[in-house]
Amino acid sequence: HADLALYQAKSTGRNNSRFFTPELALQLSERLDCENDLREALERGEFELFYQPQLFIESAALMGLEALLRWRHPCKGLVAPSVFIPILEECGLIEPVGEWVIRAACRQHRVWQVAGLRPPRVAVNISGRQFLRAGFAETVARILAEEGLAPAFLELEITETVLARETEQCIETLKSLKGLGLEIALDDFGTGYSSLNYLKRFPINTIKLDRSFVSECNTKSEDAAICAAIISLGRTLGLKTIAEGVEQAGQLDFLRNEGCLAYQGFLHSQPMSAPKIAELLRGRQPVAAVEECS
Ligand code: C2E
Ligand code: MG
Ligand code: MG
Ligand code: MG
C-alpha cells in the first residue's frame, strides 16, 4: 500500500541518520566533554541555586520559593538544567548533585533566617532516580538534621512518572518523608501518564499545574477546561493547587476565577539569585510585621 511504503521509506530515512556521521562524532565528543566537566563541577563549586517566588493568588503574599539548579560553567556561563540534568541522570551523577541541591537549599534557608529574614518554605526538585534510590528518606532526614532546618520549611517536588514505577516503594518513601514533617508537591501535573488514582493513593500536599496548560489557559478553551478541571479536582481532594509559568495578567485572572491557590511565573519574577531573594525578603519585612499586629 502506498501509505505503508511511504511510512517505511520515512522510517528507513530516519534510520540512515543513525550511522556514525562526523556530526554525530562531534556531538558525542561534546557530550563526553560535558560529562567530564560535570564530574568536576561539584568539587569546583560551580553549581548554584536560583529561587523563584511562589505567591498566593488572593493576597499576593509569598507562599514559597522554588529552588532551581544552575551550572556556572567557566566558559559557557550560566547553563540551564534542561541541558545537564539528563546527562547527570544518565551518568549516575544525579544522586550526589541532587543531595547537594537539598543541602544547599536547607543551608540557604538557615542563612536567611540567621540574617533575620523570614523565608517561606523552599521547594526542591527531586529526580526520579534520586527519589527511588533506597534510603532516600533517611538521606533527607540526615540533611535536615545536619543543616538544622525544621522539616516544615522543606517541600520536595516529584513528577507523576516517578509514581508510575515501583508503586509500593514510592508509597513507603512518601510516607517516611511526610512522617518527617515536610511537604510533597506533584510537579508538571497533567503531562505524564497522569492517573487520577495517584492523587488518591499517594500522600501529597500540592499539585502543580504544568506551564503547557497555563500558557494558553485564557486563550484556548481546551487548556482552560484542563486547568479548571485540575484546580477543581485539587480543591475537592483538599490539595493545594499552584500554577507554574504564569506570564500574563490575563492568565492570573483566569486562575483566580477558577479558585487556584497560588502561582509562580515571569509575571511576578524570574528565578533569582539568593542575594536578590534576600532583598525581596527584606522588602517584605514591614508587611509581615503589620500582619502580625493585626
Ligand atoms: P520545573 O520544576 O517544572 O521548573 C519550572 C521551570 O519553568 C523553570 O525552568 C523555571 O525557570 C521556568 N519558568 C518559571 N516561570 C516561567 C514563566 O513564566 N515562563 C517560562 N517560559 N518559564 C518559566 P528551569 O529553571 O530551566 O528548570 C527546568 C526544569 O529542570 C525544572 O522544571 C525541573 O524539572 C528541572 N530542575 C531544575 N532544578 C532542578 C534540580 O535541582 N533537580 C532536578 N532533579 N531537576 C531540576
Ligand atoms: Mg519544579
Ligand atoms: Mg514544574
Ligand atoms: Mg513544568
From TrEMBL:
Domain EAL, first and last residues per copy: 31-285
Compartments (UniProt record): Membrane
Source organism superkingdom: Bacteria
Family of this protein: Belongs to the ammonia transporter channel (TC 1.A.11.2) family.
Name the record gives this protein: cyclic-guanylate-specific phosphodiesterase
Residues of the full protein shown: 730 to 1023 of 1026
